[in-house]
Amino acid sequence: MTTITLRFKVNGRPVQLEVPPGRRLLDLLRQDLGLTGTKEGCGEGECGACTVLVDGKPRLACLTAAVQVEGKEVVTIEGLAREGKLHPVQEGFIQTAGVQCGFCTPGLVLAAYALLQENPQPTREEIRGYLAGNLCRCTGYEQVVEAVLWAAERLK
Amino acid sequence: MNPTQIAEGKAVGQGVLRVDAEAKVAGQARYIDDLGFPGMVHAQVVRSDRPHARLRRLDLSPVLAHPKVVAVVTPRDIPGQNCVPIIYRDMPALAEDVVRYVGEPVALVAAETREAAREAALRARIDFEDLPAVFDPLEALNPGAPQAAVREAAEQGNVFNAMRIRKGNVEEGFAQADVIVEGEYRVGYQEHLYLEPQGVIAVPEEGGMTVYGSLQCPFYVQNAVATVLGLPFAKVRIVQTVTGGGFGGKEDVPSHLAAMAALLAWKSKRPVKLVYDRDEDIATTSKRHPGIIRYRTGAKRDGTLTAVEVEFFYNAGAYQTLSSAVLWRGLIHAAGPYRIPHVKVDGYSVATHTVPCGAFRGFGSPQVIFAHESQMDELAKALGMDPLALRAKNALRVGDRTATDQVLEESVGLWECIERVRALARWDELQREVEEFNRRERFRRRGLGVSTVMYGVGMGAKAPLLDKAGAYVKLEVDGSVTVAVGTTEMGQGAQTVLSQIAAEALGVPISSVQIAPVDTSRVPDSGPTVASRTTTVQGQAIVDAAAKLRQRIDQAVRLILECPQFTLEGQTFCASGAARRRATLADVARWMWAHNWDMGATGWVEAAPVDWDPQTGLGKAYFVYSYAAHLAEVEVDLLTGEVKVTRFWAVHDSGKIVNPDTARGQVLGGIAQGIGYALLEELVSQDGRILYPTLTAYHIPTSADVPEVAVEFGEAPYSAGPFGAKGLGEVPLMASHVAVANAISRAVGRRLRQYPALPQRVLELVEGGLG
Ligand code: FES
Ligand code: FES
Fold first, then answer.
1. What CATH architecture applies to the domain B3-29+469-606?
2. ipTM more than 0.90?
3. Facing A132 at nearest CB: one of B34, B278, B702
């Protein structure tokens, strides 16, 4: 099988891998790199559980070919903590009970992180709009919104 | 703020942070698909694509010819019985001669990779002889309808179960009524859509089988695996992994997955992973039962209810699974939380050649609640009464009799819920605001809807043998505490709430309590994690164990401090009086260990007795009930038929609330699922085939579809619950959908009688209603 040599950065660490051209970024992260924090909820671009950051922008890893991240910087949920300390967005989800089963959480945390990069002081409406691509079946979203507001306050 | 900072011994009633949150936000929590074992292979199920057919020939040689295939399994390879035991034993692990629904498993394939397993499974050649099939439950009742039910599992023909309630005399009740309303209501499937699809890994070891999985009820799974492998239970170990949502969908279905993975593991002697993808999960696993529900309700001019008559039919699908229990809960809840002297209810679960339905939050009650709460609004309209006042007038109170003639002895907080939701939403003002809005706007209408519900906590008289729980509480030598229980965390917050109960009962900080992983070889059977019973029943078993351990700890403290009286200050036991000796819990633990004391205690609880007569349908159906009152405001776009839920208020009585934050999370999440049920969620099926089993076609609420919700708790304590707690998990969903439905009906002036209220359906109402 033909493979392509892929070089990119994941969570700040440079990696080089041989990948078949059709390999999904999601499988590369979960299987080849063991970064299982990124979840697969649907595999068809509908749930947002596989959200990662590619050059700072939220992307669905199930719809992204691994080769598309050549030369780019990928951040997964495992890469958000700094020196063993959770990022305020992560802390926010803990503080507000924004986590239930947790399967949507890595994707939601990364989407919320990206939102706060773009818009550090979002309104509730803006948060609800921005996160509408990340499904959560457990929380009803209200405590997720509160988590983002908590983090926004902390990051001021 | 962190969990250790709460006042010692004051764990119950506090918004303690979830004990599982940190691992989950960090991406460190390991769900089933995140795990692997050396030598592990991947499974794919070969399924029927016919709703009803004779299996004439199954040729798997092309499958076996695939270079990466490791094993195939057909019914001939099953060492034990070909049966997934749930309540009945009608469902085979693999169909043998006849297939009864599209998607029914017929064979299993294991291969080195997931892709290879999929490719290879497609090569299976199955020779079917189609048989006549029936998909609609009413048609299935016709004489001469094709037989869907396995005969031994049905009461008669395609009637899996028929159940009834006869209280008083409805003819007399209707004769006393000044107003009678009548209607038929229809609901379709609701898919759980837990965000983590179903999955298990079966690992053959030590002459037996261990199955890891995303599941709610490990002891059900143990039974299924032991049955298909013909192994003693003691050789079958079930370990629950972090579970990404259940909502009932992981009550019975994991038994089937585990049985299939275990069969492949047994044959191949390799660990086998079976994880469904989303489409397979939607197409082939259980859902909320579709229903056809007919009601007649009578009331006097002043609103006093006199009679209700109900007939309802649930489409159970091809096998019994949990349908008899689902039907029973629907039956008991059919008359709502009201005082009604004359009640007649007939419920039927009907077999069809469709995917088996099962447990889903509310468990057969949301369907009838849609109908009874719609009827209450229709009555209010006919009587010219305020819908909240009509409910308050008839609301059950302590001392009243339920529809099954059960006397409610305690803990009935319904009336308080109604009055509090009225105040919380500023009901009178709110109605004026809405009228004002509707006068002003031409193409938009707002409406307000209310609903009230009761919920029988626990298994009830249908399955009293399952309503028990064990707990083992152990003081470790360093003063920390391990708690082993057989109920599971699936996202609802059980680990946190049970840790709080253990901490409170022992008087230790919550940070020193650890709930052990659920492994059937190490935890007591606590019955299933269903029926909103975990806090109430499991919690009480922990209280029982903790009380025994606490007695021993206190005895040790007296010996150590050489003083009969002592106080607990912070983490330290202090002798009373002049001695002033002190000892920490760690000191006490070390002393107990050094003196060879038993440092563990087991707790056990059987739920309070219930008893119910199937002939009359009367009796003590449940040991206690929870209650709720919901109020929704919607806005309907008259041009497009689109509905938006704009505001929502919810007041719940679930007894003492152990953790207000996780309880609020249960309410908010349940309301969102109810909004989905009422507005969005529809699975189209044709001839027994779900047409678009994808998340692209099946829409659940997003953050943009759910309003802000004001939540309050009225806490009518239950004397036999831990610190007064009752169940909560299912109640918010049960109440929410119909508050939305009632709001839509009021906004457009015509009654919504079918879910979901998709724009087209709403437009039809608008055209008929506003003319
Ligand atoms: S797994 Fe990628 S969007 Fe659902
Ligand atoms: S917490 Fe379960 S899906 Fe969001």
1. 2-Layer Sandwich (3.30)
2. yes
3. B702
